């Protein structure tokens, strides 16, 4: 009978009293040895176990010798299993900690800051990241010459991202992409000119007295038509055109049709200012500029994208353009982190949207990219009082 079988009989209380006492003493002896080694911080080696058994071999019978060797074998297996189990557990814990640091911690850190890589919408293989949608909306409102609707974002972890703002359309045939980084909610572009707004004298005030005395201002062309004659015949130019009166979007659409003008961007006029905190700067929307398709929540923000708004024409265009502008304003009003990063504190989007809802969408001027001959034709058209031109960047 093996010692393992002997222990099983002991556990089942099927041993005679004498044998029971022998096994009980053996168990107590090994428990005492284990506790001692544990308290001393020592792990028994196989040689130690063998030496211990050699010493005890002289004091046991041949039958006990066989049983003792079986017990020694069992102890070796138990110790080996214990160490393997401990190694597996420690390894699993270390792996879990490493995976947590590599994958979970960066995402936790990212959640504290603006995340330009967040996927806001996807369809099939196409998806739109947060910065693409934010920057397309922002640049359409404030950067008519630098409208961008495609941004590649790469995560670096811990609130750090590399960005590449792509130019998808060009009036010169030259495409200039602008790289940069966003680090913990702070934007750095390697060409800061991308964010510069057009010059202050692009449009003139819709004021008869101002127009009458424009030659004395010193900041504007006293004779814009004369300046147009100086332009190169073969080049395209950016032109900002001021209308002789504020037009509703409906009136403006009709005027464009009548004069055969296709503006790229329109300047919005706010009626009935409610104090100086609403916004007195120049902002507007794409009227017919080339643009890419962007995925977004169309139920929450109908016609938010210029791509969608530009698919309409005729009388429907009046309503669609108004909806488009209101969606842009409503959308940006909710992008607190983006606005903070852009340092855009001078406009109250909600008040501007309320003004347009109350008074309608009105146009004071527009921007167009065209050659010299077309700009001269537009400058002479009825309804135009001023035209300012500049080279395309």
List descriptors:
alpha+beta, 3 domains, 11 strands, 393 residues, five-stranded antiparallel beta sheet, four-stranded antiparallel beta sheet
Question: Could you characterize what this model shows?
Answer:
The chain is an alpha+beta fold. The chain has three domains: 107 residues, no CATH class; 76 residues; 192 residues, no CATH class. Strands 9-8-10-7-11 form a five-stranded antiparallel sheet. The longest helix has 49 residues. The chain is rod-shaped, with a radius of gyration of 40 Å. The termini are far apart.
Write the layout of secondary structure elements.
Blueprint: H1 3-11, H2 17-40, H3 46-57, H4 62-110, E1 119-123, E2 126-129, H5 130-142, E3 151-157, E4 160-165, E5 178-183, E6 186-189, H6 208-212, H7 224-228, E7 236-248, H8 249-259, E8 265-269, E9 284-286, H9 306-309, H10 315-333, H11 336-342, H12 349-359, E10 362-371, H13 372-380, E11 384-391
Antiparallel strand pairs: 1-2, 3-4, 4-5, 5-6, 7-10, 7-11, 8-9, 8-10
Helix pairs in contact: 3-4, 10-12
């Amino acid at each position: 009978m093996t010692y393992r079988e002997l222990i099983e009989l002991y556990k089942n209380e099927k041993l005679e009293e004498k044998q029971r006492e022998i096994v009980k003493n053996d168990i107590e002896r090994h428990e005492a040895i284990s506790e001692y080694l544990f308290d001393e911080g020592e792990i028994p080696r196989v040689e130690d176990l063998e030496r211990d058994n050699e010493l005890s071999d002289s004091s046991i019978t041949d039958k006990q010798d066989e049983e003792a060797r079986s017990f020694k074998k069992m102890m070796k297996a138990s110790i080996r299993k214990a160490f393997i189990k401990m190694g597996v557990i420690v390894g699993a814990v270390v792996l879990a900690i490493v995976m947590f640091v590599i994958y979970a911690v960066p995402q936790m850190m990212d959640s504290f800051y603006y995340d330009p890589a967040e996927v806001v919408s996807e369809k099939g293989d196409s998806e739109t990241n947060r910065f693409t949608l934010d920057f397309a909306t922002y640049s359409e409102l404030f950067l008519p010459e630098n409208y961008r609707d495609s941004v590649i974002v790469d995560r670096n972890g811990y609130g750090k991202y590399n960005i590449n703002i792509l130019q998808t359309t060009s009036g010169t045939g030259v495409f200039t992409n602008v790289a940069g980084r966003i680090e913990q909610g702070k934007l750095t572009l390697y060409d800061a000119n991308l964010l510069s707004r057009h010059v202050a004298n692009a449009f003139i005030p819709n004021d008869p007295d101002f127009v009458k005395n424009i030659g004395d201002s010193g900041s504007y062309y006293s004779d814009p038509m004369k300046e147009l004659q100086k332009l190169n015949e073969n080049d395209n130019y950016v032109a900002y055109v001021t209308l002789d009166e504020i037009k509703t979007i409906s009136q403006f659409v009709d005027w464009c049709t009548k004069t055969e003008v296709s503006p790229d961007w329109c300047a919005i006029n706010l009626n009935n200012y409610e104090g100086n905190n609403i916004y007195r700067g120049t902002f507007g929307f794409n009227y017919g500029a080339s643009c890419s398709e962007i995925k977004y929540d169309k139920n929450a923000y109908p016609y938010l994208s210029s791509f969608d708004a530009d698919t309409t024409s005729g009388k429907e265009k009046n309503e669609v353009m108004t909806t488009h502008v209101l969606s842009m304003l409503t959308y940006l009003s909710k992008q607190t982190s983006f606005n903070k990063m852009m340092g855009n504190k001078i406009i109250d989007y909600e008040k501007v949207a309320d003004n347009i809802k109350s008074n309608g969408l009105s146009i004071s001027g527009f921007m167009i990219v065209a050659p010299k001959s077309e700009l001269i034709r537009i400058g002479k058209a009825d309804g135009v009082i001023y035209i300012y031109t500049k080279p395309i960047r």
